[in-house]
Amino acid sequence: MSNFLTVAEIADHLRIRPRKVYALVAAGEIPHRRAGARLIFDRQEIESWLRGQGSAQETPRARPPAMIAGSHDPLLEWAVRASGATLALMTRGSRDGLEQMVAGEACAAALHFPQPAGAPADQGGAGNAAQATLVGAERPWVLIAWARRTQGLVVAPGNPLAIHGMADLARTAALRIGRRQSGAGSRELFDQLVSDADLGASLSEAGFVDGLTSEDEVGLAVREGRIDCGLAIEVAARRNGLDFVPLVDERLDLLIDRGSYFEAPLQSLFGFTHSAEFRDRAAALPGYSVAELGTVRWNSAAN
């Protein structure tokens, strides 16, 4: 009989599910070791632990706070509030969300990075997985689908400037173009669209208005006449009575600390997504689809 048990064997021994084993490991609550990429458990240490005399062999990892960082999303913002989940929101952009996850300051982050160069158009969301892999391959994280959204140019009612695509942004240097703050997924998407259309030189003298901090702020800036257009999701246009020029179908995913996923705050949020109230709300939002919500997009190798 081996002195070491696998995840499946320790789950059977303790009469719990394997995912609970992973949660105990993530919380530093069970003695465990690593053999390369494998997670193993010493029989004697486990028996001692069960008698209340053992201690974890690795430094317990503090659970990150019940905070969702990253991108602003109207549906997510509403769902957190309507579900009663005890989650705070700190929406300062996808790039900031990754940084907060690395620092252990958030249990989840909403991400919508643009496609990597050369990625097929029907694999929207590859940018999120690529960025998660860059910083989280050795961290206990999982990337879960939240929603598909339509990104495009928000313009004034009736589209008086006849803006029908990215190329139209270069027609006049007097055009006031709103841009999200640096590090926002929408800002990185805008910069990529400018590069793809080879508009860098043409827009060098454009009247950029920078630092818009949310999807809704882009719509509000157009409605108030502070900018002529800006890149945002369709909801930001429609809820402000504005016109919208669709450009890109994107995925917004949630990067989640695996241990935190099983805690009450995130369980309350995801439980609420199965309700009729949530589905009706999502269906009423233009440019949204939650058909893939809950699908695992990426899972780190870390246990």
What do you see in this structure?
- This protein has 303 residues and is of the alpha/beta class.
- It has 2 domains: 4-50; 62-303, D-Maltodextrin-Binding Protein, domain 2.
- Helices cover 34% and strands 24% of the residues.
- The strands form 2 sheets. Strands 4, 5, 6, 7, 8, 9, 10, 11, 12 and 13 form a 10-stranded mixed beta sheet that branches. Strands 1-3-2 form a 3-stranded antiparallel beta sheet.
- Helix 4 crosses helix 11.
- The protein is elongated, with a radius of gyration of 23 Å.
Give the structure's gist in a few sentences.
The chain is built from 12 helices and 13 strands. By secondary structure, the chain is of the alpha/beta class.
Descriptive labels:
2 domains; 12 helices; 3-stranded antiparallel beta sheet; alpha/beta; 303 residues
Roughly how much helix do the residues carry, as a percent range? 25-40%
Oligomer: single chain
CATH class of the largest domain: Alpha Beta
Largest sheet: 10 strands, mixed
Question: Mind telling me the C-alpha Rg?
Answer: 23 Å
Number of strand segments:
13
At the third CATH level, what is the topology name of the largest domain? D-Maltodextrin-Binding Protein, domain 2
Summing up helix and strand content along with how strands pair, one would put the structural category as: alpha/beta
* Mean pLDDT score: 87
Sheet-strand content, in percent, reads: 15-25%
Number of domains: 2
